[in-house]
Amino acid sequence: MNFIVRWLVTAIAVAAAVWLVPGIAVIGATESWVAIAIISLALALIDMSVKPLLQLLSLPITCLTFGIFYLVVNTIMLYLAAWLSNEMFHIGFVIASFGSAFVAAIVISIVSAIMNGIVGDN
């Protein structure tokens, strides 16, 4: 049940990022909600598996930058989720630039934090 809640929260956050950030476009699906569901599934799986290891490895840099590098880690996870969904399902989104991905990672982080506060998920 925890994974389903995380997936729904991530789907809402990804939809907000696709809607708000220029340079992020959904591709490969006739319905954009299908692509958002697949992207959020890939992002939720990556956040549960790869992200803790990458956070641990980047801990010294994150401490030196007072946590700002954590946003770069989120951007890398977004690129990884886009690549994974595009390669495996041929549905995903295109990221125009690193700046677009960085802003999208910020939007996803903020919306996820708000939604996790609402649903009470850690």
Uncertain spans: none
**SS-derived structural category:** mainly alpha
Give the SSE string.
HEHHHHEH
- How many β-strand stretches? 2
Strand content: 5-15%
- Give the termini separation: 13 Å
Computed Rg: 14 Å
Organism: Senegalimassilia faecalis
InterPro entries: Phage_holin_4_2 (IPR007165)
Keywords: Membrane, Transmembrane, Transmembrane helix
Protein name: Phage holin family protein
Structural account:
This is Phage holin family protein. The chain has 122 residues and is mostly helical. It has a two-stranded antiparallel ribbon. It has helices at 2-20, 32-49, 51-57, 59-64, 69-89, 98-119, and strands at residues 24-27, 92-95.
Write the layout of secondary structure elements.
Elements: H1 2-20, E1 24-27, H2 32-49, H3 51-57, H4 59-64, H5 69-89, E2 92-95, H6 98-119
Antiparallel strand pairs: 1-2
Helix pairs in contact: 1-2, 1-6, 2-5, 5-6
Keywords:
122 residues; mainly alpha; 6 helices; single chain; two-stranded antiparallel ribbon; 76% helix
What does this entry show, briefly?
With 122 residues, the chain is mainly alpha-helical. It has 6 helices and 2 strands, in the order H-E-H-H-H-H-E-H.
